[in-house]
Design goal:
Layout: E1 7-13, H1 15-20, H2 22-27, E2 30-32, E3 41-48, E4 51-60, H3 64-78, H4 80-95, H5 101-127
Parallel strand pairs: 1-4
Antiparallel strand pairs: 2-3, 3-4
Amino acid sequence: MRALEIVAYHRERDIGEVDAFNPQMELAGFVARGEHGIPGRRYFVRTEGSVHTHHVHMFATGSDQVKRHLAFRDYLREHPDEAERYRSLKMRIAEEGVRDVKHYQERKGPLIRELQEKAESWVQEREV
């Protein structure tokens, strides 16, 4: 498993409409993963070989999860030092030869939780 920059797209839609898009997404080279652990989300991945190159997250309209995901993304965009911490951790895990996705996610978990908390506080401060 290599840690790469991944194109990620987030969108809010009626979930019933999203499910109807599965055949078109598959024609575009994506694999539909359903909720993939997050209720109200539909998750699609596209790979080149065994490397994920694109992630599409579609959330039910009004989902708090989309706000959480976008806060994380925007926080990293505005805080390049934190983005580098995250990138470095992903690279280090990949260099250690971790190939199991669940193990990879578990290893990233503590930093992701820390950054998510910072991101949510950052968003709240900006809204005041």
